[in-house]
Amino acid sequence: MRIHLTSAFVDDQEKALLFYTDVLGFRKKHDVPLGDDRWLTVVSPEEPDGTELLLEPSRHPVVKAYKDGLAADGIPAVSFAVDDVQAEFERLRGLGVRFTQEPLEMGTVTTAVLDDTCGNLIQIVHSK
């Protein structure tokens, strides 16, 4: 068994697509119209056949409370592995990304947390 798909609820699918591709560097995998929404997934360019992230619309009634609660408590909705948290922090900050937590070393793990502009906090992490 392996993880094939996971999702992040986003306020605006088009805005999310631009952020996740143009800023974070993911690649669009699927973009299928579904009425007013889309089945919209992105993947890592390093693993184009790997786990897909579904940029899922936030329309379901319980999603707002869920997202607001996570954000208020500073809890990331998703975590992405990077090779160098400090370098990625500098690159993304240079692109205007807002961080809620600058790089923080905790033993063998370094993390930072950013705002995806679509209602989520995203953690980047590197384990030594």
Spell out the blueprint of helices and strands.
Blueprint: E1 5-10, H1 13-23, E2 27-34, E3 37-43, E4 52-57, H2 63-72, E5 78-81, H3 85-94, E6 99-106, E7 109-115, E8 121-127
Parallel strand pairs: 1-4, 5-8
Antiparallel strand pairs: 2-3, 3-4, 6-7, 7-8
Please summarize what this structure is.
The chain is α/β, with parallel strands linked by helices and 128 residues long. It has helices at 13-23, 63-72, 85-94; strands at 5-10, 27-34, 37-43, 52-57, 78-81, 99-106, 109-115, 121-127. It has 3 helices and 8 strands, in the order E-H-E-E-E-H-E-H-E-E-E.
What keyword list fits this structure?
alpha/beta; 3 helices
Largest sheet: 4 strands, mixed
Structural class: alpha/beta
Per DSSP E runs of 2 or more residues, the count of β-strands stands at: 8
The termini sit apart by 26 Å
Give unreliable regions as ranges.
none
What is the alpha-carbon Rg in Å?
Answer: 15 Å
The number of helices is 3
What pattern of helices and strands is seen along the backbone? EHEEEHEHEEE
Q: Helix share of residues?
A: 10-25%
Average pLDDT, rounded to a whole number, is 97
In one word, what is the shape? globular
Relative strand content: 35-45%
Explain how this protein is built.
It contains 3 helices and 8 strands. The protein has helices at 13-23, 63-72, 85-94; strands spanning 5-10, 27-34, 37-43, 52-57, 78-81, 99-106, 109-115, 121-127. The protein has a 4-stranded mixed beta sheet with strand order 1-4-3-2, covered by helices on one side. The longest helix has 11 residues, at 13-23.
